[in-house]
Amino acid sequence: MNFKISKGAFLVLDRLHSQGYEAYIVGGSVRDMYLNHGAHDFDITTNATPDITKYVFRDFTVVETGIKHGTVTVVVNGENIEITTYRQEGAYTDSRHPDSVEFTSSLSLDLSRRDFTVNALAYDGCDTVVDLFGGKEDIENGIIRAIGNPYERFKEDALRILRGVRFASVLGFEIEKHTKQAMLDLKHLLHKISKERIAEEINKLLCGAYVKKTLLDMWEIIGEIIPEISLMRGFDQKNRHHIYDILTHTAVCVEKIEPIPYLRLAALLHDTGKVSSFSIDENGEGHFYGHPHKSEEIARRYLEEYKYDNFTRDRVLLLVRVHDTVIEEDKIYVKKRLNRMGEKAFFELLSLQRADNAAQSHLYDRAKHFDVVEKIANDILAEGACLSLKDLAVNGNDLINNGFTRGKILGNILEYLLKSVIEEKLENNKESLLKEAKERFGG
Q1: 245: left (phi over 0), alpha (psi -120 to 50) or beta
Q2: In Å, how far are 6, 16, 358 from 12, measured between CA atoms?
Q3: Inter-axis angle of helices 310-322 and 343-358, to 10 degrees?
């Protein structure tokens, strides 16, 4: 094998082998090396117990990161290598964690408890890959297959259902039919999983290179978490601007925007309010009046329930709320938008609108419009235009020094001056701004 592993992982394997113990790199890193994707995190499994492992690496920093489950972390030249003793597990009464863990001397028992065949390969660091469940063949054929009985695997740990969908999105693999059926039959068990873990998997899934296909193939799984997704499937928009149903439109939009979790979340959620906003006019054309507001409500409910951080929540809600806003090809209008949203959010809105447009009828392609708006915005930024109070040539102290009293009035004056500069009614220099302040507000 010509697998490239880190110096730290090689040292750990070599030392355990030299002390007479079995040791293998396992899991996703072996799968990724087999795919020539490269690997960065190397997890090692061994028949050495945690106490023995700690003794073998007594000259290194050893952290008991998961000692009750047989895991310690050895720090080798700044690299953290997790080492776990072979183990077999008891029942999973909570559909997530084993009630008990028992160490074993059998590699086969350890590998048999894992989720999918592609993740059950073990590499000794030299020339041997142990493949007991056909993982290499499934990698070659692009198949996600549960080890053994898929119903048992998903009842043990329901998060595996979402992990399998994530692997399909990231790797572009097909989910084997029996595995897929078990996922669909047991998807309700996802509600037993912590919200944070669900959100983490959703983020990774959305950033996969094959997310469009995965959303269209596995919509029922995502719909278990966000029910509106299921309602969007097959929903005819009956609108000349759209060539797809709402779900397909959404999947294309997600694929087209940059693979940044909060941007892809915004793309996923931006039209979730369409079904409940649908109406048909006298000509038989469909409309979705007010759908950004309803989509924002749905997005807020999801983001709060699944405990996203404040930045992600606020940015996604902003983008969903304004995604349908027409940005005029006008310098002053663009300056106002930049002032209201900030530079980063403004360009993210453009990205979302570009992706949204790419998922509509090509007869209504607005790509040139977005190019014009983007150029206007870039020109504004290049000239260093005043867009916020920090750019304004006067501040509160300047007003006080010119006879204005402290208090709320200062903020009102500054906001008025900023608005006037943005609208190009005043130049951004101290003299003209103070003159206007005195004439309009006294001082």
Answers
A1: beta
A2: 10, 6, 49
A3: 60
CA distances from 309 to 303, 306, 330 (A): 8, 9, 35
Query: What CATH number has the domain spanning 1-145?
Result: 3.30.460.10
Q: Which residue is associated with the tokens 């029996």?
A: 178
pLDDT at 188: 97
Q: How far is CA 25 from the centre of its chain?
A: 27
Tokens encoding 127: 């020339």
Q: Any idea where the domains of the chain sit in the sequence?
A: 1-145, 389-441
In this prediction, residue 39 carries a pLDDT of 82
Distance CA 378, CA 384 (A): 10
Q: Do domains 1-145 and 389-441 have the same CATH topology?
A: no
- Model confidence pTM above 0.85: yes
| 4 vs 356: CA distance, rounded Å | 41
Q: Mean pLDDT over residues 161-180, rounded?
A: 98
Structure tokens given for 416: 């008025």
CA distance 8 to 392: 54
Q: What is the pLDDT of residues 184-239, one digit of tens each?
A: 999 999 999 999 999 999 999 999 999 999 999 999 999 999 999 999 999 988 88
Mean pLDDT, the chain, whole residue set: 93
- Checking if the pLDDT of 362 tops 80, the result is no
Residue 233's pLDDT is what?
96
- Tell me what pLDDT residue 212 has: 98
Q: Which CATH number fits domain 389-441: 1.20.1630, 3.40.1000, 1.20.1050, 1.10.246?
A: 1.10.246
